[in-house]
Amino acid sequence: MFRSLTTAATGMEAQQTKLDVTSNNIANVSTAGFKKGRAEFQDLMYQTVRSAGAVTGEGTRTPVGLQVGLGVRTVDVQRMHGVGDMRQTNNPLDVAIEGHGFFPVTLPNGDPVYTRDGALKIDAEGRLVTSDGYPLVSDVSLPPDALSITIGPDGTVSAQVPGETAPVEVGRISLTTFANPAGLETMGRGFYRETPAAGQPLTANPGENGMGSLSQGTLEMSNVKIVEEMIDLISGQRAYEVNARVVRAADEMLQQTANLR
Question: What is the pTM of this model?
């Protein structure tokens, strides 16, 4: 009887985690470059009452065993790195990656991090930086008298300056990819940190070695599909309710047992 209580409790805890992940997805439905998460589960160990193939008599064995499961556990929350919808902004500093790759960014302590959020800005030194002011590893700097900026699909950054008829190339944005992007550590604010599970970072120019190309004036939005999240929300809520009913049923059975005379 107590086994059913603890088993149902693990189910309630697992569904609570699923709802937590789903709520975070829904909250970030409009976050540029956000990648949805998916909670994944595994069944727990089993209590073996009788093994399959156990001898039951002379020349006879049980065709199946008797095992009772002890519940479920959350094994991981996988980040789904599918490409999100592209939104045209016509802002020359908005850059979307069409395909694989991340923008490598340098933190103030010198550590590299990676992001898909291409809402770039220009700091006081003329460098291309993120919304938090962190510069790209490519360290692209614009001249202070630049009239306009052009970012090509191959990452080439050009600026129109006074006195020049043709745009002047000022740098090139590179991209980084990993063998297992799902193994990256999510830091928040759209950044990811490399881990041994992600593999070694591979840096190349856009359009080379499997990297995606860049699209200026476009932002990659979240890859969250609100209809799918609402379905997950409803199914998680119903699964939680069913597990709660199991707890209530087990409690009622224990109460009846306790009232036996």
Answer: 0.87
